[in-house]
């Protein structure tokens, strides 16, 4: 007879000393865990609820400007610095960690309309309605910066005066050119007092400008004649142009897919285009209830942030029709500029109420260093939530957002209007000869024509 | 192969061993996969297909990793009892086993003689560390089985019918003469649950925190012990019942009735989910296999029947025994207590065919009340009229525990932590259903059925009634003469009937058309010589 029975000595299964870690034994046998799916569902539900509880996206406000913030620029070489320009000609460098002004750049007479930093992070370019372009040396961050910050004032490297007021400026990626937008598009060099090159397609004012992150010689502009134009610096004339039904306020290129860009439009929507194929938008991002003023892509290229005239900031997926997140506070007024931080974890908005606001990109994310076990738990909950996201209860909790009353009302009003339009269109189509009213999607409808 | 034969005429031993290993591994991977790999061929959406493919790959990978861990990282191996020569396992006595095993295991063979307050019924915590024993005449004892410590014993001085642990050893519930009581570890009465009445049997659903009881008046009750809310209270109405068991797979509660029927209940419906008529007479005992597919019932007609629950209650096997108590161990051994002896059956081939494995006769005159396996140990505990005993049954328990599921070596801190986590993961009573794997899956869309003849008639009748009951305006100049009114009414009825009749006619027409099409096919199948006699189909 051969016999063996289970016998566990306590020494083998418990810790030797009280300072040791408790020993953990695993057995992955599914028979030991009954009702796994139900347990996972309950965890998903709890995770969704916890997410709602911990959704505190507002980190802090940075005040100091005495007029509305009109533009911002990220420093590509320094994570926690951000530049902002205001309507009274004030340009400031902020430290995001302490939320204080590090340095001021006085000099502009009128509103500052454009700010940009060279790729090496050394030179700041500002332009404004006083028809000047100013180049500044960016102060090198030192250990003492946060002590007596407000007294720090910088002198411009150069001041270039030109014929007309400027609306926007953007620096070339990987080069030393920058472009300004105004009555025409001007290409500048750091060392020349006059533009190197000038482009003009029509007589209307260009209001925004953005260089392509992948191809340094390509830039996209939008103008007040409702057009979006793509220029190639190597050619003598503009490359392509589309005219939409409403004006585009701002453009942002997707840094991970540099052929795609998204345009923030006056008609409350954002339109993602493929620059090679401009006859149809790739995606229409709807949700805002008033003109979208500014847009900026996350460095991951997976999502972008928009600021709108309806006093909210929204975050969209790059391919999603509706926003993932909406941020608003009682005190935030019209948002004129938004930026995603260079580590994709914060969003900065500048608004009419003279403040810059710092938000978390993921509303319920835990700040600070996470211990490995904590991180794993977060990952697990995220996975479980993702698995059960289609179940009605989980979906309801995850999707719910509190909206300010005016925005809620405006959204429902817009819904009524669009529904009525759609219905009317359908009826018209039903009563007209078949084929006489071709159906065109929203992605095409808002484009009037494309000019090569 | 040809090369190998030329070499030495033998199959390469390494090769065959590897093949055996892979087969075994495949079996294990299958166990951890929890079902078949999804077939994604018919999905047309490329994006979705890609996503699902990635996910399926992940599942297979994790199942393989789990199988590997199962193979190499498990700290202990299961027990066994192998006969040599002409020995038979069921002739091996406990004394013989006791001489062969180590000292630690020998401590698990004992008899505790308490002749006054028996017969005893027993219950273990899910980790198998603690045991509570209840004598019928009011003796309650809580024991730590690891170091054989008596934690607390006390007498309630009234009849105790059943006792059950709640989520951990800190609380246990006892069904006493009039009410159900909840006691804490140190013997203080925490609650008196009067609503349950004189319960005959108790069960605890530890994932849902539901205390379930059945009483003499056939009332089945579910009470949430975290909130104290009575979730369900149903009258079973199928005869007197003293049996209550929980299916560990889907947590349905099974009640065995005196009529020989087993009904399964969930707390959210007042009717049973499932019924099997098992025995012609009274059912005396009942047990569920841990995978939930197998149920064993014992009847007064001296038979134990094994049922496959997946196949709508197919009878698998009948064993001869007059069992008072049945229990399945974690590894699937079946213990039966008949009179004063215990028999253990084993499914040695894995094909749900049970055969005799061990038997243990006790002294004559001992009436066994309950025999239950201790989880994570090779031990069978027997409660009887003279106290309780414990014997070794090699190969019955799961050799490897999971610290996060049930830990026999749990510290106080770990227990507190686990209590919180289990409360956070407390399942809703709605999750108790026949197939719990359905949660989160998509319900297939059912085609809407056509309204039946009766429904159509009822609709017609309702329309006619409505038309009849309509009153007409009183008008002058002879327009409200009775004859005119009658005609108006008749017209209204015809008008109400008209759309329905039209619809019916349309349906009939379409069905005759269909028939005609079928008939037309038949005509085409006629032999050529006869086709000229058939009606010609219109050329399309």
From TrEMBL, chain A:
Signal peptide: none
Family matches, as CDD domains: WD40
Subcellular localization, as worded in the UniProt entry: Nucleus, Nucleolus
Biased composition (Basic and acidic residues): 419-428
Domain Sof1-like protein, chain residue ranges per copy: 361-447
Region of interest (Disordered), residue spans: 419-444
InterPro entries cross-referenced by the UniProt entry: Sof1, WD40/YVTN_repeat-like_dom_sf, WD40_PAC1, WD40_repeat_CS, WD40_repeat_dom_sf, WD40_rpt, WD_repeat_DCAF13/WDSOF1
Protein name as catalogued: DDB1- and CUL4-associated factor 13
Pfam family, one: Sof1
Main location: nucleus
Family: Belongs to the WD repeat DCAF13/WDSOF1 family.
PANTHER family (alphabetical): DDB1- AND CUL4-ASSOCIATED FACTOR 13 (PTHR22851:SF0), U3 SMALL NUCLEOLAR RNA U3 SNORNA ASSOCIATED PROTEIN (PTHR22851)
Residues in WD repeats: 62-104, 105-146, 285-326, 328-369
Automatic annotation (TrEMBL), chain B:
Organism name: Penstemon smallii
SUPFAM superfamilies: WD40 repeat-like
Database matches in Pfam families: BING4CT (PF08149), WD40 (PF00400)
Coiled-coil intervals, chain numbering: none
GO terms for biological process, alphabetical: rRNA processing
Domain BING4 C-terminal, residue spans: 356-436
Protein name: BING4 C-terminal domain-containing protein
WD repeats, residue ranges: 276-317
Domain of life: Eukaryota
Keywords per UniProt: Nucleus, Repeat, rRNA processing, WD repeat
């Amino acid at each position: 007879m051969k016999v063996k029975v289970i016998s566990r000595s306590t020494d083998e299964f418990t810790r030797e000393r009280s300072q040791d870690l408790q020993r953990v034994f695993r057995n992955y046998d599914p028979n030991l865990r009954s009702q796994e799916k139900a347990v996972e569902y309950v965890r998903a539900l709890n995770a969704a609820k916890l997410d709602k509880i911990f959704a505190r996206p507002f980190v802090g406000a940075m005040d100091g400007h005495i007029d509305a913030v009109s533009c911002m620029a990220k420093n590509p070489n320094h994570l926690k610095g951000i530049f902002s320009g205001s309507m009274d000609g004030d340009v400031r460098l902020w430290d995001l960690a302490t939320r204080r002004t590090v340095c001021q750049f006085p000099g502009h007479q009128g509103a500052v309309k454009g700010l940009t930093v060279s790729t090496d992070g050394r030179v700041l370019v500002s332009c404004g309605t006083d028809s000047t372009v100013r180049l500044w040396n960016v102060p090198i961050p030192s250990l003492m910066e946060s002590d007596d910050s407000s007294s720090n004032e910088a002198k411009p490297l150069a001041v270039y005066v030109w014929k007309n007021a400027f609306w926007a400026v953007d620096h070339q990626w990987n080069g030393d050119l920058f472009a300004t937008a105004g009555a025409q598009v001007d290409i500048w060099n750091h060392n020349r007092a006059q533009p190197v090159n000038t482009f003009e397609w029509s007589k209307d004012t260009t209001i925004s400008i953005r260089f392509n992150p992948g191809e340094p010689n390509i830039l996209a502009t939008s103008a007040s004649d409702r057009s979006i134009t793509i220029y190639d610096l190597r050619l003598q004339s503009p490359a392509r142009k589309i005219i939409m039904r409403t004006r585009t306020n701002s453009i942002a290129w997707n840094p991970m897919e540099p052929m795609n860009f998204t345009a923030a439009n006056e008609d409350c929507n954002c339109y993602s285009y493929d620059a090679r194929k401009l006859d149809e938008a790739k995606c229409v991002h709807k949700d805002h209830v008033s003109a979208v003023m500014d847009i900026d892509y996350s460095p991951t290229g997976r999502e972008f942030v928009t600021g709108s005239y309806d006093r909210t900031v929204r975050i969209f997926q790059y391919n999603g029709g509706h926003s993932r997140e909406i941020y608003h506070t009682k005190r935030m007024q019209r948002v004129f500029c938004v930026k995603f931080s260079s580590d994709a974890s914060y969003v900065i908005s500048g608004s009419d109420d003279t403040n810059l606001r710092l938000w978390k990109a993921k509303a319920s994310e835990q700040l600070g260093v996470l211990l490995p076990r904590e991180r794993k738990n977060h990952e697990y909950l995220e996975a479980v939530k993702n698995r059960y996201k289609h179940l009605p209860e989980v979906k309801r909790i995850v999707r719910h957002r509190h909206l300010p009353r005016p925005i809620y009302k405006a959204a429902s009003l817009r819904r009524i209007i669009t529904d009525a339009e759609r219905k009317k269109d359908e009826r018209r189509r039903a009563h007209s000869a078949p084929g006489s009213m071709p159906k065109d999607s929203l992605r095409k409808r808002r484009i009037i024509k494309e000019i090569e | 192969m040809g090369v190998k034969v030329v070499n030495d005429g033998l199959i390469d031993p390494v090769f065959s061993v590897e093949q055996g290993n892979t087969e075994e591994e495949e079996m294990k991977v299958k166990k951890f996969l929890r079902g078949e790999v999804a077939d994604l061929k018919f999905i047309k959406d490329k994006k979705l297909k890609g996503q699902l493919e990635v996910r399926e790959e992940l599942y297979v990978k994790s199942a393989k990793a789990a199988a590997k861990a199962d193979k190499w990282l498990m700290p202990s191996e299961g027990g066994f009892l192998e006969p040599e020569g002409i020995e038979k396992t069921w002739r091996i006595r406990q004394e013989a086993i006791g001489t062969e095993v180590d000292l630690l295991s020998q401590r698990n063979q004992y008899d505790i003689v308490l002749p006054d307050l028996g017969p005893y019924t027993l219950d273990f915590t899910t980790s198998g560390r603690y045991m509570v024993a209840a004598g019928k005449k009011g003796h309650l004892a809580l024991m730590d089985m690891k170091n054989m410590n008596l934690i607390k014993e006390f007498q309630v001085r009234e009849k105790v019918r059943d006792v059950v642990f709640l989520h951990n050893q800190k609380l246990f519930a006892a069904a006493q003469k009039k009410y159900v009581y909840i006691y804490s570890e140190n013997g203080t009465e925490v609650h008196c649950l009067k609503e349950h009445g004189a319960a005959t049997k108790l069960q605890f659903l530890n994932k849902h925190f539901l205390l379930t009881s059945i009483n003499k008046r056939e009332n089945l009750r579910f009470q949430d012990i975290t909130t104290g809310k009575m979730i369900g209270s149903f009258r079973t109405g199928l005869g007197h019942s003293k049996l209550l068991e929980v299916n560990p797979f889907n947590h349905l509660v099974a009640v065995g009735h005196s009529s020989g029927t087993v009904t399964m209940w969930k707390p959210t419906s007042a009717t049973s989910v499932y019924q099997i008529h098992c025995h012609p007479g009274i059912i005396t005992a009942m047990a569920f296999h841990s995978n939930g597919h197998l149920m064993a019932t014992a009847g007064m007609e001296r038979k134990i029947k094994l049922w496959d629950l997946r196949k709508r209650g197919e009878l698998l096997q009948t064993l001869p025994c007059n069992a008072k108590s049945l229990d399945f161990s974690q590894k699937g051994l079946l213990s039966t207590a008949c009179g004063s002896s215990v028999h253990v059956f084993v499914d040695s081939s894995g094909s749900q065919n049970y055969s005799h494995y061990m038997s243990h006769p006790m002294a004559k005159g001992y009436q066994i009340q309950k025999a239950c396996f201790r989880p994570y140990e090779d031990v069978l505990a027997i409660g009887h009229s003279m106290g309780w005993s414990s014997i070794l049954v090699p190969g019955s328990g799961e050799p490897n525990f999971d610290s996060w599921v049930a830990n026999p070596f749990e510290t106080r801190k770990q227990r507190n932590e686990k209590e919180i986590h289990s409360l956070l993961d407390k399942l809703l009573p709605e999750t108790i259903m026949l197939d719990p794997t359905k949660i989160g899956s998509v319900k297939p869309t059912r085609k809407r059925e056509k309204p039946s003849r009766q429904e159509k008639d009822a609709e017609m009748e309702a329309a006619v009634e409505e038309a009849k009951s309509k009153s007409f305006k009183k008008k002058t100049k002879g327009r409200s003469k009775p004859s005119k009114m009658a005609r108006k009414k008749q017209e209204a009825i015809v008008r109400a009937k008209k759309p329905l009749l039209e619809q019916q006619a349309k349906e009939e027409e379409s069905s005759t058309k269909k028939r005609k099409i079928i008939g037309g096919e038949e005509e085409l199948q006629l032999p050529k010589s006869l086709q000229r006699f058939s009606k010609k189909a219109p050329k399309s």
